[in-house]
Design a protein that fits this description.
With 367 residues, this protein is an alpha/beta fold. It has helices at residues 5-10, 62-70, 83-99, 117-130, 147-160, 174-183, 200-204, 210-224, 241-249, 288-295, 317-334, 340-346, 354-360, and strands at 20-22, 39-41, 45-47, 51-53, 74-77, 110-113, 137-140, 166-171, 187-190, 231-235, 254-257, 272-274, 277-283, 308-312, 349-351. The protein has an 8-stranded parallel β-barrel, surrounded by 7 helices. It has a 3-stranded antiparallel β-sheet with strand order 12-13-14. The radius of gyration is 20 Å and the shape is globular. The chain binds inosinic acid.
């Protein structure tokens, strides 16, 4: 009944978050304050909360990136603006730091860039202006298992000539992970088609459940015997703390998320009122709305692979991080885990039937 990650992946179809549960085990971890949720991202970025806010224009600007940093996570500054404007976002983060009372080491600055010559220029500009204060750079494209991504990773690695951590993605398979790791990526975003605002699977038929992709990449990394320091970041479809826990148990070193942070006070965008409710816009970066706003419309022969929606106003990002880490700490006490390595080693998975899933939600609230 209970399966190791390898057995889980070898049995049945590739699992989604709702297909599995983790069995509790005998535990000597007595209190939720005991487990250490810390994770080292990309070899050198220390996170006490292994959570990243996604580089999307309705999720991570400087205010969100700063809030994520001081709460133990990190936010990746989105790239859907000019290099000068992106540089201003970095200045804005440093201004917030100057006005606050946090250590310089708490403030993690990671801008996103794309691929191609214009994006090389963006990177060169940002690196020349801010190279000494960057914690890393994220090369952010929809299909990370591609020639143009591999070229860009190699260019940044050689162009920079120092060990600035590179986060690259997205990929959905172990092979894709190994290719990026070999090219020089220090962390890989894993997940294609699983985002809450994503239409990729509907428009193209392409995708793999995020949880299965993460497990595939983790097992590929283990089998390769190399790239132990190359982090796996689960990306797309994280809804509850349970999805966060399952991602880490299946081999992720951190998660990245959009929806859970959209609608917080720190996410970019105005608060609007619809039917008497306060909301903020949350939109996929491949949505028609983004292409119209930022690229002068859809290019002929293409289709939107994202949607735009509204998310009720939620309060501060801090509460989200703290709720997710609370769930994680509790899960760790159930599986006798003092750190994330223990969580991975001690997790045994169970496949769920639809009725088991139905029972798993707080069904006492159903009318
Ligand atoms: P969420 O946390 O489930 O909302 O998913 C966020 C993730 O969706 C991001 O981190 C990206 O990997 C992905 N994403 C962002 N915009 C789009 C889009 O327009 N189409 C498909 N995927 C997207």
């Amino acid at each position: 009944m209970q399966k190791t990650l390898e057995e889980l992946m070898e049995s049945g179809d590739p699992p989604s978050f709702d297909d599995i549960m983790i069995a509790p085990t005998h535990s000597t971890v007595h209190s939720r304050s005991e487990p250490d949720t810390g994770s080292v991202l990309a070899g050198s970025i220390n996170l006490s909360a292994p959570i990243i806010s996604s580089p999307m224009d309705t999720v991570t600007g400087p205010k969100m990136a700063y809030a994520m940093s001081i709460n133990g996570g990190v936010g990746i500054l989105h790239r859907f603006l000019s290099k000068e404007e992106q540089s201003h976002m970095i200045d804005d983060m440093m201004d917030r730091y100057a006005e606050g009372n946090h250590s310089r080491y708490d403030i993690k600055i990671i801008p996103a860039i794309g691929v191609g010559s214009k994006e090389r220029d963006r990177f060169a500009y940002l690196y020349q202006k801010h190279g000494d204060i960057l914690s890393g750079v994220a090369i952010d494209v929809a299909n990370g298992d591609s020639d143009y991504m591999l070229d860009m990773v190699r260019w940044v690695r050689e162009g920079v000539g120092v060990s600035l951590p590179i986060i690259a993605g997205n990929v959905a398979t172990g092979e894709g992970f190994l290719r990026l790791a070999e090219a020089g990526a220090n962390a890989v975003r894993v997940g294609i088609g699983g985002g809450s605002i994503c239409k990729t699977r509907i428009m193209t038929g392409i995708g793999v459940p995020t949880l299965a992709s993460v497990a595939d990449c983790y097992l590929a990394r283990e089998r390769s015997g190399a790239f132990k320091e190359v982090s796996i970041i689960a990306d797309g479809g994280i809804r509850y703390p349970a999805d966060f826990v399952k991602s880490l148990a299946a081999g992720a070193d951190a998660i990245i998320a959009g929806r859970i942070f959209a609608g917080t006070l720190e996410s970019p965008g105005e608060i609007i009122t619809i039917n008497g409710k306060k909301v903020k816009t949350y939109r996929g970066m491949a949505s028609k709305e983004v292409q119209e706003d930022r690229r002068g419309g859809m290019r002929p022969g293409t289709c939107a692979e994202g949607v735009s929606t509204h998310i009720p106003l939620k309060g501060k990002a801090h509460y989200i991080v703290s709720e997710f880490c609370g769930g994680l700490r509790s899960a760790m006490t159930y599986v006798n885990a003092r750190n994330l390595n223990d969580l991975r080693a001690n997790s045994r998975f169970i496949r769920l039937t639809p009725s088991a899933l139905d029972e798993s939600h707080a069904f006492g609230t159903k009318q």
